[in-house]
Amino acid sequence: MNKTFTRLKYIFLGLFLLGSAGVLAYHGLWVWPKERCEARGGAWAGKWLKCGTVYSIETLTRRPKGLPPINGEKPEAATASSTSSAKAGAQVEPSAVADKPKP
Question: Which residue ranges are recorded for the region named Disordered (predicted)?
């Protein structure tokens, strides 16, 4: 009986040490590097365990902010068409609400 308790004691001690080492390895390889990366303003790539730098699209394309789209469409025309569709949607919406039965 005494051998059984001694054996179980060593088994549970080994499991505890193995679990503790696993948690420490997880934090050392994943959690702490991710926190350092995000604190510097980077983007954490968990698949590769690396910290990346975030660039704006203006930096990558070297276009200044505020230019119209390349296809030639003016921003005013895009907003005018979206407001006219919003007005048309607003006209349809009250009739849809009126058709619903009240509980």
Answer: 63-103
Give pTM, 2 decimals. 0.52
Q: CA 49 to CA 42: how far, in whole Å?
A: 13
What distance in Å separates the CA atoms of residue 46 and residue 30, rounded to the nearest whole number? 8
Report the Cα 100 to chain-centroid distance in Å. 38
Asked whether the beta carbons of 33 and 52 are under 8 A apart, the reply is no
**Is the Cα torsion angle 45, 51, 53, 54 positive or negative in sign?**
positive
Provide the terminal-to-terminal Cα distance of the chain, rounded to the nearest Å: 72
Distance CA 94, CA 72 (A): 36
pLDDT digits (tens, 9 = 90+) for 52-102: 998 888 888 888 887 777 776 665 655 555 555 555 555 544 555 555 555
